[in-house]
Amino acid sequence: MNDERYTLITGAGQGLGKALALACAKQHFNLLLLALPGEDLASFSQSLQKDYGVKSDYLEIDLTEPEAAGNIHHWVHAHHYVLNRIINNAGIGSVGSFTSHDAGFYDRQLDLNIKAVVLLIHYFIEELAEEPDARILNISSLASFFAMPYKAVYASSKGFIYNFSRALRMEYLHTPLRICVACPGPITTNRKVLQRIKDQGRVSRIMALSPEKTARLCVKGMLKGKAFIIPGLPNKFLYWIEKLLPQNIKIKIVASRLQNNAPS
Ligand SMILES: NC(=O)c1ccc[n+]([C@@H]2O[C@H](COP(=O)([O-])OP(=O)(O)OC[C@H]3O[C@@H](n4cnc5c(N)ncnc54)[C@H](OP(=O)(O)O)[C@@H]3O)[C@@H](O)[C@H]2O)c1
To answer: Does the CB atom of residue 159 touch ligand 1 within 6 A?
Structure first.
């Protein structure tokens, strides 16, 4: 029997996903990296093998394709890889009034942020539940705790991931599998996000963390099997403030901070 185990990471070509892959390689986890074609996963995968002595393979795939989860499951089994961790990181963010994005955009955003996560877990969960110390880490967002005007669909998709993860964790507590959900605040991953952080003002800048620090805290929380992970003290503080403020006040504060952001 093959006693090597792998951690599968979606959206591993850039941003937080790439930082998560590096953080996992530093823990000597073997890796299966997934991203859209064109992210040069081949050389990233090779550099992880060379620099950290881990095994690594990659699959270029569009997770919004209807057969994506099934194709990933098939690929993993065809190569005789055995998973003990999945990190569902891939996700599309957005800001702007509801109609500043077209229906096709929301179709892709919901497919990636929600459907791809649910289906990938569905394909693998029974196998993972038999692995000692197995983990699923779903990347949600601090946005999951808020009703967010001008980020209505994105924040709601992350709310789904938060509640789905907490609920599913309970169903699998009788097994060694622990399902964890991370709810990061702003992460300085790419140009678009940097612009959003700038547009949202001082509070966002104080809360922002680098992808490397966010990834390190997420992996640490995942290894501890935490139910949910909020990286960084200012973000934890905001989580508790959110519990204290009435909804009608919170929603007005959020709207005033986001309404002038350029759609992206
Ligand atoms: N940045 C933030 O401020 C922030 C805050 C809280 C939560 N998050 C969450 O953190 C996660 C990563 O965010 P990020 O800022 O690192 O985003 P990013 O830089 O835009 O990276 C997104 C990742 O998802 C992948 N992806 C996008 N569409 C895909 C598709 N159709 N099929 C397969 N993969 C696809 C991308 O793959 P390619 O590499 O091939 O492009 C990329 O690796 C997301 O779930 C996001 O919601 C981000």
So the answer is: no
Let me know if residue 57 belongs to a domain.
yes
Of all protein residues, whose CA lies closest to atom 19 belonging to ligand 1? 15
pLDDT at 1 > cutoff 70: no
Structural domain range at position 185: 6-258
Is the residue at 264 inside a domain?
A: no
The span from the CA of 133 to the CA of 5, in Å, is: 11
Ligand 1 contact, 232 CB (< 6 A) = no
158: helix, strand or coil: helix
Encoding tokens for residue 84?
A: 């003990």
Q: How many structural domains does the chain have?
A: 1
Q: With respect to residue 1, please indicate whether it lies within any of the assigned structural domains.
A: no
Domain presence at residue 263: no
pLDDT at res. 2:
63
What is the C-alpha R_g of the chain?
18
Ligand 1 contact, 35 CB (< 6 A): yes
- By C-alpha distance, which of 221, 192, 6 is closest to 92? 192
* Antiparallel, parallel or unpaired: β 135-139 and 178-182: parallel
12-70 pLDDT, tens digit each: 999 999 999 999 999 999 999 999 998 799 999 999 999 999 999 999 999 999 999 99
The pLDDT of residue 114 is 98
pTM score over 0.85: yes
